[in-house]
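Retro notes, structure queue

What went well: the backlog is down to a handful. What didn't: a couple of records were mislabeled last round, so from now on we paste the full input next to the output in the thread. Example, using Peptidyl-prolyl cis-trans isomerase from Thiomicrorhabdus xiamenensis:
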Amino acid sequence: MSRRLFLALKAAFLSLLLSHAFTAQAAENPQVLIETNKGNILVELYPEKAPKTVENFLTYVNEKFYDGTIFHRVIKDFMIQGGGFDKYMNRKPTHAPVQNEADNGLRNRIGTLAMARTNDPHSASSQFFINTNQNSFLDHREKSSSRAWGYTVFGRVIKGMRIVNEISHVRTGFKDGMGDVPAETVEIIKARQIK
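Corresponding output:
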């Protein structure tokens, strides 16, 4: 066997090993199926990048907290936000807030899942959003100000972006003092961890 052929085979073998390792790691990431009245959204979570945030989100999922909540804030070409209110616009009681992990290197890109919060960087609890645009202004820049802290990305949609985009285009208005509320209720029927 020539040295050139040997090196080519070695490179191919190493590439295959790396590919398998990446696939195995991705297969180990938790996945959550979010069933809505518009269709299903499957998300993959990244506990290695955002361990506290993923643990927090899965706590709500496993407690069936999200069942019957709604996407209460929808802004076209920006994001869809849910996980805090029922269909009557009643705010659901939550656990203590989770520490902001926006400095994990993940970015607010189309299809990524991130935590919603107030002006306090460490105020995220149950509410999350799915980016429908490249929202780099939400990424972590520094820890000196609330806005610069960013919004923690902790997962991504791996199936169902068509549903996310459909939700992002619903007609919205004002309801109970809140803006950008879908005129027709977009309900999370249930959210379940599937692996």
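Agreed that this is the format going forward. Reviewer comment attached to the example: The helical segments are 3-28, 51-62, 146-149, 161-168.
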